[in-house]
């Protein structure tokens, strides 16, 4: 018997009000028909629980903080339960570090981590913080970073694949990425689009016949996975810039991209990936590869319905 998919939402350590990532995580759990585990990390000996400088009773401050965290988790879990989400909250007494997050996900045997993106001063949209990058690098499983803003029914997903890497290595990672995206889109009732960039600035890429061959391979790949022709986007340019520019012209709710052994997002998480993930302007699912077990399994799909609908 296959165990249910395990979704893990990492609550911001200072959160005591509702956050959009939890809303998204609850919707996803309900759509997939699986429980949602909510972990709120609170270090009882950390700076966040020490209180103001000069406080006379730091122990009282810490206990008050823990009480607030427990109440927030209880209230949010009750609200999710009312909307049909099976929520399992837990206050974790550990530092809110990427290493602790990754270790906890490993112990919990999570299949997918969900986490809010962080606001950045002077930037219109949110992006990945240094801690987010570290978590993505060391996480044992895929990570979905949720862009803050009004929660909407996810209508359009974009999955990025690399036909150049596919041609060189006979790579199966692209297949794993798109299959995971298809399961997720089906469960959420979202349309799925696929994009690939022909790097026209790379050596030997100016040959028109080479472009045509890559374009044909892209169409064959998309056809094999049942992607409608009008949902295929094969564009020239530098990968990070081209994808970000495309996302600005055609807004999507979620970008799906590979997170290891992939040209766009190498295991070292290079500058190209940073350019894409920090400027996507939407939520991002970074799929860790290779995929031993697809992060989105073929559970019985059901459309997302919000409390306001």
From TrEMBL:
Q: What functional role does this protein have?
A: Required for resistance to DNA-damaging agents.
Q: Which InterPro entries match?
A: UspA (IPR006016)
Q: Does the keyword Endoplasmic reticulum apply?
A: no
Q: Which GO terms describe its cellular component?
A: cytoplasm
The record's family statement is:
Belongs to the universal stress protein A family.
Occurrences of domain UspA (ranges): 21-146, 156-288
Tell me the organism's taxonomic lineage: Bacteria, Pseudomonadati, Pseudomonadota, Gammaproteobacteria, Pseudomonadales
The cross-references to PANTHER family, in alphabetical order and at most eight, read:
UNIVERSAL STRESS PROTEIN E (PTHR47892:SF1)
Q: Does the keyword Cytoplasm apply?
A: yes
Q: Which Pfam families match?
A: Usp
Source organism per entry reads Pseudomonas kielensis
Provide the protein's localization.
Answer: Cytoplasm
Q: What name does the UniProt record give this protein?
A: Universal stress protein
Top-level taxon of origin: Bacteria
Major localisation: cytoplasm
For this UniProt record, the keywords arranged alphabetically read as follows: Cytoplasm
């Amino acid at each position: 018997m296959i165990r249910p998919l395990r979704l893990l939402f990492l609550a911001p350590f200072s959160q005591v009000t509702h956050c959009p990532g939890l809303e998204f995580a609850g919707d996803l759990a309900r759509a997939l028909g699986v429980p949602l585990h909510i972990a709120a990390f609170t270090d009882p000996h950390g700076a966040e629980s020490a209180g103001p400088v000069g406080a006379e009773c730091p122990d009282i401050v810490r206990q008050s903080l823990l009480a607030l965290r427990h109440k927030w988790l209880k209230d949010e879990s009750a609200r999710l339960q009312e909307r049909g989400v099976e929520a399992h909250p837990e206050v974790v007494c550990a530092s809110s570090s990427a290493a602790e997050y990754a270790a906890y996900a490993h112990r919990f045997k999570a299949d997918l981590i969900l986490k809010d993106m962080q606001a950045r001063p002077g930037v219109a949209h949110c992006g990945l913080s240094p801690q987010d990058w570290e978590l993505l690098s060391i996480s044992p499983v895929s990570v979905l970073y949720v862009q803050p803003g009004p929660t909407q029914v996810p209508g359009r997903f974009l999955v990025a694949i690399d036909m150049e890497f596919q041609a060189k290595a006979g790579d199966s990672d692209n297949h794993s990425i798109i299959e995971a995206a298809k399961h997720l889109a089906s469960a959420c009732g979202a349309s799925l689009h696929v994009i690939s960039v022909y790097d026209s600035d790379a050596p030997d890429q100016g040959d028109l016949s080479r472009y045509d061959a890559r374009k044909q391979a892209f169409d064959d790949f998309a056809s094999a996975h049942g992607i409608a022709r009008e949902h295929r986007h094969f564009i020239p340019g530098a990968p990070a810039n081209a994808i970000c520019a495309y996302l600005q012209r055609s807004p999507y709710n979620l970008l799906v991209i590979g997170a290891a052994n992939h040209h766009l997002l190498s295991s070292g998480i290079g500058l190209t990936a940073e350019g894409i993930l920090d400027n996507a302007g939407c939520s991002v699912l970074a799929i860790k590869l290779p995929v031993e077990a697809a992060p989105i399994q073929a559970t019985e799909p059901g459309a997302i319905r919000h409390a306001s609908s």
